[in-house]
């Protein structure tokens, strides 16, 4: 009997035949109501769940799926998947780290260019019949700081250094000996060493609110910040305050705390560029991501090691019993 996969992701329908051709039976539940109904109606049938970090899979949902064996997360982040609940049940969790790195890096640089060169405001002015001569900074020769030098951070660094002659610094959990970029020991030190700061770190408790008022003040009134990672990394109220008071020059954001809701304060600012969490969306990235999910599922249900396992916490089941 083929394994049944509950698909919670709303952006991959065109590529789901990849999984169907591999013999998997799919249940599509992209809305909250459909998700709840599918878990209730098909609880004993579901063997795998396909989700993404912001959608997650919660402890009560995992408990409601007695035959769940594997959770596949699209993208690198898995912040709303209850890893402890998965570990206690012996459920495997995989992610898609690195698959959409090129797409996210492209979007990060597009946001940076749009923000620093003030492209949206210039476009709007021309459409109104105006012809403003707006003087804006160049990217060439500037200092770029990257918070999180994983696959996405590395792709951004290469584009910045090789394409725009920018010097690159980074802050990571650990110093990387395989790169020549300048390592900064704290986010504040990184901001102080940067003209532009791009956030490319995973979400979750370990990175929550790394970017606060202290970091933003270190970036300074001529500094720009771009977030293509997770909104949880930034204290949003501190960011809005810094933007309103012009303690930083501007921000470009692809992620928000309560998506799809965006604070009105951000939407009203002229020194902000906003996109609807689309950095990782491209045909190439989506196809590659679904193909990786397929390879992980095939490996798992064939009794082989999965390709991209997520490290799980120690099981608590025995201690509870």
Automatic annotation (TrEMBL):
Residues 12-310 form the D-isomer specific 2-hydroxyacid dehydrogenase catalytic domain. SUPFAM superfamilies: Formate/glycerate dehydrogenase catalytic domain-like, NAD(P)-binding Rossmann-fold domains. It comes from the Bacteria. GO terms for molecular function: glyoxylate reductase (NADPH) activity; hydroxypyruvate reductase [NAD(P)H] activity; NAD binding. Gene3D superfamilies: NAD(P)-binding Rossmann-like Domain. GO terms for cellular component: cytosol. Residues 109-279 form the D-isomer specific 2-hydroxyacid dehydrogenase NAD-binding domain. Keywords: NAD, NADP, Oxidoreductase. Belongs to the D-isomer specific 2-hydroxyacid dehydrogenase family. This is Lactate dehydrogenase. It comes from Pseudomonas moorei.
């Amino acid at each position: 009997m083929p394994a049944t996969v509950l698909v919670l992701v709303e952006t991959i329908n065109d590529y789901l035949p990849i999984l169907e051709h591999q013999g998997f039976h799919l249940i599509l539940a992209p809305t909250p109501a459909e998700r709840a109904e599918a878990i209730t109606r098909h609880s004993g049938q579901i063997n795998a769940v396909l989700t993404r970090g912001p959608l997650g899979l919660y402890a009560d949902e995992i408990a409601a799926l007695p035959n769940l064996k594997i959770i596949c997360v699209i993208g690198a982040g898995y912040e709303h998947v209850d890893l402890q609940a998965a570990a206690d049940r012996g459920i495997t969790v995989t992610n898609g780290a690195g698959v959409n790195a090129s797409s996210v890096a492209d979007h990060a640089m597009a946001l940076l260019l749009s923000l620093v060169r003030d492209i949206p405001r210039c476009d709007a002015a021309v459409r109104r019949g105006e012809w403003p001569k707006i003087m804006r900074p160049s990217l060439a020769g500037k200092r770029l700081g990257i918070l999180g030098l994983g696959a996405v951070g590395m792709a951004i660094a290469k584009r910045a250094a090789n394409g725009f002659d920018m010097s690159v610094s980074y802050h990571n959990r650990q110093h990387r000996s395989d790169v020549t970029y300048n390592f900064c020991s704290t986010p504040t030190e990184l901001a102080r060493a940067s003209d532009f700061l791009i956030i490319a770190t995973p979400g979750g408790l370990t990175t929550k609110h790394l970017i606060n008022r202290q970091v933003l003040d270190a970036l300074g009134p001529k500094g720009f910040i771009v977030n293509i990672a997770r909104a949880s990394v930034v204290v949003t109220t501190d960011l809005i305050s810094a933007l309103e008071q012009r303690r930083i020059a501007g921000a470009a954001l692809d992620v928000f705390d309560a998506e799809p809701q965006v604070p009105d304060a951000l939407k009203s600012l002229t020194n902000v560029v906003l996109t609807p969490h689309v950095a990782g969306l491209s045909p190439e990235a989506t196809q590659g991501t679904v193909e990786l999910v397929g390879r992980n599922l095939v490996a798992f249900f064939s009794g082989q090691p999965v390709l991209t396992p997520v490290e799980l916490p120690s099981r608590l089941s025995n201690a509870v019993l």
